[in-house]
Batch of 4 targets.
Target 1
Amino acid sequence: MTELDLTKERTGTGLRLLRQAIGEHRRGIALGMAVSILWTLAKISVPLLIRQGIDDGIRGDGSLLLWSLLVVAVGGVSAICTGLRRYVAFRNARAVEAEFRDRVYQHIQRLHFAFHDRMQTGQLMSRGNTDLQQFQNFITMLPVTAANLMTVVVAAVILFWLNWSLATLALMGLPLANYFGRRFAKKLHPAVMGIQEESAQLATVVEETIAGVRVVKGFGAEQMRADALAKEADDVYLRSLEAASARAAHLPALELVPNIGLIAVLGYGGHQVLNGTLEVGELVLFNIYVVLLIQPLRMLGMMVANYQRASAAGERLASVLDTEVEIVDPDQPTPLPDVMEAGAVTFRDVDFEYEPGEPVLRGFDLEIAAGESVAIVGATGSGKSTVARLLPRFYDIGSGSIELDGVLVNEVALDELRTAIGIVFEDTFLFSSSVRDNIAFGVPDASDEVIRRAALLAGAAEFIAELPDSYDTELGERGFSLSGGQRQRIAIARAIASDPRVLVLDDATSAVDPTKEHEIRDALGEVMRDRTTIVIAHRAATIALADRVVLLDEGRVAAMGTHDELLASNERYREVLAQGAAKHAKAHDEVVD
């Protein structure tokens, strides 16, 4: 496919989304068009009334007051329609913006982990904000554009009806306006598309810098991030200059062309008045109509620019909305069985790779009995966290099978599957809400008793009681008002509150100070009792809590046994524990508990 074909295809997706938005709100847009037509008819009627007022009321025997009152009445209709048209236009535009914002947001949430692994947050924020604003700006202009087109058409018909020779002179600039308008659109589109792409890159830099401000300050990298922002800002500036150059090259012509007709009418029509072949009122009428044409033709440039921005925004929105959701519910979901001892997990000959040709798991086999706790240990990159991500179907496996209580996980509805599996990640994320809301995140209707019990089991109850408003204390962004260990204990409480069949602790004690680890180790032991638990850890004390330890090496099970058995018999196991201890000792120097 050539670059031209690719550009046409991308432009087609933007137009498709625009047509869809217009089609879904056609009734509101039709109402705006109807009001615009009424506004146009009132606007067009004024010059005719002025001509009659001049010819009959001033030069003839008619009543000047009558014609004046008619002009006032029609002007009043025009004023009312102006306000109504504006209200309807903005109502339609905001409805489109709100609807598409919901669609984009919901679709982003449904998209699989692999999509979010690749896509930058700033890019998604730009699509859900800036691009949607460009979309609604275009919808806002539709009734205005309809009024302008109606004005041009009706004015042209009236002018030819009155005097075809003067009308020809008045409209002689329209072909030129069409020519310059088409050239303007062709030049402006790539520049506008570039602005929106670069603006998204700029948003990414800002989002990453703010989200990682502690890392930036910790490494004294403020200037480096400022340089990155300056580079992206310069790119936006250069792209904006390209768009400004396109406007500067074409808008003067679009501004000048309508005035050609006005000059021609004044010159030729003035001679006809002097020769007595044309009434003064008719010449004034012609001049008024030509002046009425100037503004709609000037608006052509603005509408072309709005259209190009909306088309570019549509392309970027379509790139997200057209992305297929790869992890979906089965056509006929199988419910998880209601058994006394729930939580049996089986991995059979599982192969998985994030990138083609780079396998992470190779023939991975593991059976975990209901109520059993298993620690998965391995070097960095051995596939430990991948096991935790495959069980709730964050990713689909390449081959093999994964079962929960005898049911294949890809046959279970996603909501039911993920409710049955509680996960505490190493990278703890808390929301800007109260402690209570964060613990009850998975079960919003959880009782106070459930929330307090979960906090107690997670070893969080003591420090929560010391917070200013206890469980009602509002946490800052990402919960950074708490220490790393406190955040992880609330995350553990969040998982416990949902009472899952399987609890996955993905290095969930990594941010806890080793000197305070005993505060939650006993609590974890209580949580893990009689509950299927997968523990991914490096610390020996946490690993020892598990009934069984699985050593993972290069995506396969290399050894299996209790912690003490492997410690005594397996050299590779001892090496992995030593590496993990060194890693966390270094990380501890960077964590303030």
Target 2
Amino acid sequence: MNNLSDKSAPELLAPAGNYECFRAALAMGADAVYLAGKNFGARSYAGNFERGEIESCVRYAHLRGSKVYAAVNTLAGNREIPELIDFLKFLQSARVDGVIVQDPAIPELARRHDIALRLHASTQMTVHNLSGAKVAAELGFSRVVLARELSFDEIKYISENSGIETEIFVHGAMCMSYSGQCLMSSALGGRSGNRGRCAQPCRQPYRTDRGEEFVLSLKDMALINEIDKLITCGATSLKIEGRMKGAAYVASVVETYRCCLDEKRKPTKNELDRLNRVFYRGGLSSGYFDGKTGPKMFAFRKPDNPYAESARETEKSVLERAAQNENNFKIPLRAELDFNIGAQIWLKVKTESGAAANVESDYVVQEAKTRPTDTNKLINQLSKTGGSVFEFGDIRIQNDGGFAPLSELNALRRRALEDIKTDILKRYDEAHFSEIMLPPLSEGISVPLKKSGITADVYNFEQFGALLEFERENGKELAYIGVPIDELCEDPAPYESETERIIILPRNIMQKDEYENYEKQLKRLKSLGFSKLRVENISELLRRGGFEMFGGRRLNITNSLSAELIRKAAGLCSVFLSPELNLAQIREIAAELPCEIGIYGYQPLMLTENCITKNLGRCPCGDRTNYLTDRFGKKFPIIRDGKSCRTVLLNTCPTFMCDKMSEVKKSGAALLNLSFTIEDGNAVKKICAACFGGDHRPREFTRLHYYKGAITEKANKIKD
């Protein structure tokens, strides 16, 4: 059923959106299965599992030597914390092998409430470099699910140097955006991907200079041709995506990877065709594993499915094989039966691994008046294990010719099988759960926030100059000004007069070589007097000597515990709260510690490794702003992540709360942020003026989630 005994082979991890998928995955050889309960899972539209079903799945898997991981990978609001604690305690009692987590509050909740669980950092945490993996380990995670956007070399480097288990996706759908960094569904329709409710707007067509195309729709990933590299990349676990897929899909993908991993070979043409038949989105792609990006990864046109006619037969066939495998799986037993006249019947049962059960009947064997119960009949009766997973092999019997009703033997057998099942599960627990202990979190520090007021982040020097002009012309002053690190390093001189106020804005994504360059950039800027730094990813939750640290919006902070944990762990002056919170939720967190919220800006909706405009045949590295246009005629601006070739897709209109300053200030947030991206200098000054009582309003704008909220329906809602 699985390959756990071969420690050189990575774990094969399969999805289960329902019980049929769960059984199919194990039947086809998955070493582990991940599933979710009815709440807190990032696929809320999958069937998912009730608590009793989770307990049954865990017993079913553990009996077969396989593992079950529970996905608790959505962000939680303050008012959900009690329910979250209760669910984590349940998962501990259910003996799940690990919990996949996005919210950084969960390790701290586990510590405070003595919940012994292995925690896996979800790919929603956007861990994409060595530093991020090390920070995850410090926070209490035993495994990190790496971003899909990493290459073989990056995965190997992190796996070999981080001191933490790594898990990588090897097959299934790919999000266009880095996981955890997509707010497109949330902003456009209120269905948050961080709450498992993504409406997949990336799968819709968009108009460009080339016409209407599916420019954000990636083909499915398939690393089946890279088996040799998957075995040597150092990853602990190879993960198949697909909790929204059916049992035939799960069975087929698991079967193919299981065979290729066990036989250490590439797939046959028939196996590749079978993968396409169970799900087709224009073919399969190696994703980012080869370190390349570009148009070949996309299904720009919705293709006709050449496998449509044969798909049904393939699905029927693979499900039949899964059912047969499930029926064929048996745990062999050795048995000894004492069937002696004048004594109770004794049955001793053992497995090859050492699990054992000894049961005794209340019935005393009688002398046979007519026909004694012969040995063959005893063997035959014991062997009737029905639909159980057990199968008697070697049966030794002591029989001196007595008699007992067959019902007594049947009852004894049932008790023995139940007892040995209990012993197998007990031994599994002893082997896998005896040493679960979260490492203590290093003592944090509370760094005071020195200023409060309005902050502004700029994208270029024109916007920076406009801010200074506004201040001189109006006698107003911003508390802090954020400037991209690449902009500062390209020519620091124009910014050096404001070193006391400037917050360095790093790139949002920094893989290995970029991170090494980033360290050099920081050293240079520090020598020039720049001493403040924005933190946008957990890879940056490091206490840097000489820098005043400010949390960034991409940390996805949605509750007080996460805010406090991250603030103290990194020594942050303030935390930037998620744009998915409403004013009531903000007020609850801001009452406890210094917070920053965004009150103006084109909200980043996606952060993509693929350059959207380069894929369309033109490089956007000049000053031109490019756009995507949706089916309603709304235009989405496209900018770059610093000076990299990554894309940031912005909302069609800015979030604007500058005319609601009295309400915003009542939220208690210490810092109110203006984020400038595509604005010219004149627009910058108008927005600043609006914050200080001016009557300017953008022609089109959104309140985003300030009056509704996307994180939890249980929080108070405020009407505009």
Target 3
Amino acid sequence: MKSKRKKVAGYIMALILLVNVAMSIPIVAANTSNVQLINRHNVVIVLDASYSMNYSDKLELRYEAINQFVNLLTEKGNYLGGIVFSNHIMDKEDLKKIQSQGDKDQVVELLKSKKSTKVDSNQGYTNIGEALLEATNMLVNAENKDLSSEIVFLSDGETDLPKDTPEELEKSLENKADAIQVARDKNIKIYSICLNSNGKANLKEMEQISKATNGTFKEVSKPDDLKEVFSLFYNVIYDTTTCGRGLSIPQSGQAQLEFEIPGIGVEEVNILIDGNIKTVSLVKPNGKEAKTQSVNGSSRDFNFIKVTDLMAGKWKLVVTGDPGIKAEVNLVFNTDLGIDIQTNNTTITTDEALDVTAKLFDGEIPEISDSSQLNGYETELQVMDVSGNLVDTIPMNLDNNQFKASYQPSEGTYFIKAHTIYDLKQLDMDEKNNLEKESEVLGPINVTKAEEPKKPVNTAPVAVEDLVEKTVYIWPFKENEISFDLSSLFTDAENDSLTYAVDSSFMEDTDYIVENNIVTLKHFSLTKGDFNVKATDTGGLSSNVKVKIVTHNVGVMACIGLGIIAIIVLIVLGIITWKRAIAPFRVDESGIKVQTYKNGIYSGTPHKPMRGTCKLARFRIDNIGIDNRKSYFQATGKNYVILKTNIPVFCNGKASKKLQIKSGIKYTIKVKENDINLMTIEYKSLMDKVMKRKRPKPVKKPKAPKKR
């Protein structure tokens, strides 16, 4: 049982990590109409129900992990949906607003309800593309489009469909490419977790899906450390703070741990206790016992408590159990802290000060009226150069319910942000457990020398085109590649030297490389994709352009087309050869008369061929420069034959390798126009009489009447 709990914990933490990355998006400047959107998201859980999952996760720990993950969400306000798939989508729960524990349970029950029990043409395989495309469509059509959107995707491997349906595999890969493109266009992050407990999963496909959408990929092979995975994942994705420690019940049968809640910034506290304990209670800072909500999934060995009625100050967690019992306690703080940064000017000289203010707020308190609510928060101003490197850090002082700092930078271009931190001092631990938040980045801030006139206002690079489209035809047995020059995509009014950043749905080093600002795409792991190219000038201003790549795999079409063409050519050649072979010469009894005149001597013997072809060598003539074995007459069945020679010959002043020899006419042929050596050809065709009979009789004109 203990091993099972540890695996559940591992899966829970991996799931939490995935969503926390999504939630780590910087909060923008305070806006009272949007404060309730802090730490609220549209999330679709996509679960693989292929047959192989029965071996990757024999104990079905994924369902307990999903249940735990969903319960960690805030009590109200998030939007949640679910998809279960194998060959095709088996069932789905459309994205809905979470308003109760029942709403959460409904999604979990859907994900648990469908399982593949066999592998056949109808179920048991893995159609990743179809499931992800449906999930992205759900999020594109979300009710609240102001929220950021994420997909949490759980599987144990790669796209796998029946080998006897290649068109189904092709469609799945096409859907996957479409899903990735939609996710990139709509800023939907896909967080993939591979349940690889058997160590046999192929990780590359899931890793690419997450990397292409700026999500995170995580392989879970040894899910036995709840604390580490919680700390690594949940704090990153859901913008929460997590801390934990082990405890041992003393002889008194009761253990106490203290933790602290700040005046603003924490919306809920989730308490997870892994261990065989008897009771759990909470004492508020005012000494009264707090009401706690035991969440679905709690048991004797695993307690999950959600606390929503919070009070600033020190709290006590009281745990009772048999002496010597050990347990692991984790606190997960769902935060709703925001920070707004403002400055007096973005263009100053070196003798002027840069004044910066930072205001903290949360979902319930858009404006702080009592500075005591900010007790414990320490805020600093971080100054960065155009490359994002930290240049300076300046403490900010609390003044009139907001943090302020004055900074006098040297000449240059800078960006600034505010960073606030609260030491939670949780669980009597020595190490720090901090609640942290960063503002949006503000800039560029241009600083010039005081004695110099202010420089002209810098302008950002301009994209030559907003969208560049390129098509690649993938041919078999051929290296297929495409390249483009990043410097050709932008212009800059100040002729600044630009630096480029490339983000692509294709995989760097595997699919493409960037050398000397040239992007070369040599491998195509997706049927379609794009490159988001960002150009930044020396003043820190930037612009973007998208290069869209569409591939057409002409391998199969080409092979089929070439095969059809080859068959047609063979048929045509066969017909021609057959016709030539059966066509009669139709010469009279005297045959074809061929004679050569060489060195004053005539030679040659008439020959009467029947059908097909007849080589000149059959006429026993001298060699006047023509290869008599390679030159021949071709029958036509008409009143002429064709002479084909291996080299051009002259006849009637024209040179040709193909001559039409008509019946009743004597032809003189020379290799050179002025040569004294020559060859003569003549014959009579039996078709002459037939042609005469077919000639229409002339119509006699009626005689004009005589004049009287």
Target 4
Amino acid sequence: MAIKDNLAHWEAEDFGTNLIELTLGDLLDQRAAEMPEKEALVYNYPEFGLNLRLNFREYRDTVNRLAKGLMALGVQKGENVAVWATNVPEWVFLELALAKIGAVIVTVNTNYRQHEIEYVLKQGDITTLFLIEEFRGNSYLQSVYNIVPELQRISDPVNETLQSEALPKLKRVVLIGNDAKPGVMLFSQVMVLADQVSDEELAVRQASVSPHDVAMMQYTSGTTGFPKGVMLTHFSLVNQGHVSTGRGALGEHERYVTAMPFFHIAGSLGGVIYCIYLGATLIPLIYFDPLKYLQLFAEERGTFTFAVPTMLIAMLNHPRFAEFDLTPLRSLFTGATPVPVIVMEQVKEKMGADCSIVFGMTETTGAVTQSFHTDDFELKAATVGLPQPHTAIKIINPETGDIVPCGQSGELCSKAFSNMVGYYNMPEKTAETIDEDGWLHSGDLAVMRPDGYINIVGRVKDMIIRGGENIYPAEIEAFLMRHPDIAEAQIIGLPDQLMGEEVCAFIKCSPGATVIEEDLITYCKANMARHKVPRYVRVVEAFPLTASGKVQKFVLRDRMIQELGLGEVANLRTA
């Protein structure tokens, strides 16, 4: 027992697990040497003409070739390279090839629109952008052309670098696809460049990479409304895979089917890196589709998955669910949003899989707490597990900073190998999140039981979690208030049976102006990522205020819950 004096402070324990000093590139090389013929990566998409099956030797060789192509292209150690794409094979290869040469992969949400990608490219000092042409009617390439029109004037993108006043750090754009477009290289051309770099040169570059170098940067929004680049190291990524798969009792036999997006920590780590660490087979979906998910489980004999509750609900409720043999499916991880008990029950009954709960955030390289695979159903349903190995957790009074007694709610703070290095080029924001003693403040309200198991009861901040995606009201409010007809905007989260929460916007119009609710939703859809678009819009003349002039968002929320008849859903989520 790691708790003393009945205070909600779990002192770090190793649980018999040692941390390892290893880079992602070296980890891949180890697996290729140990199990060269073992199936490593499968893309079963005949409908797209994609049937890729690589063993670990072929996997490594493909990554090495791309790594050499990136070196020939001029990508230097420490450079930030962004990837804006669905879960295509090139995404996986880029994650590992960039790690081998000491560059940093910057993951980009596939829902981003023009103003959002422009912010990432500028704030993140991106030197190279890899992208697909479009997704769900959102033209990525056209957005980039709009931001840097100079790109289309490049006649030889292989040898000519971009010169842009808007984005002075951006040197090149690479298209993942087969059709040539003005000013951009093709991914295949980068692979051809590999012939200019020797295996020895790659080995020297790879040897220069330290496990404590930054390997990945993921953008997450903040209460200021400005996304922040979370910097994660090889060490934190490799060891998170090490401890999470260990507690989950996963092994090299896993055939891991996943639709978690690679731009998310649960995809890039919980999919790609988990499988390399285990020596397991990764079977990704290019994007979430419940029918395709079920088909891959059946056709590929999937044994494991990591899925947010909305994905599980969509599969369970699919009209063709009963057609598919899910017998091999043994277990799954779920989290990223509150997991309804009824979903866990249905997964066990209808899919035959046992759920394990993980809780964490991007800033903690994913999980800080996790269920044991041997925990009983009631324990998994009531808590988010115990702190992970080598992870200290305390629950504090947000006002005083004092550790609260067990059973009392407060802000969850963690200190672990998995804590981020910080936010890219945001030292003040980093200091607000990680205090001078190294404790990372999550903003989540939690309760620690006397046995150390933790329950999440709310949030200090007013973050909304919709289908596993973190949504921060301040960002949407700032966007809406740029609209000429809007004087003030307030965003709240409302309970939703399927998505966990939905976004609701309260609008106060500018003098003499009117706002049509449907028109505003259309405006949002055209200008921001779809998961941030309000489902509900209400125009009001005034907001309820505290004596100090602060908007009482809880009053707005209560009003809407009553108006929409969501009381039963709200009670289920807080029970």
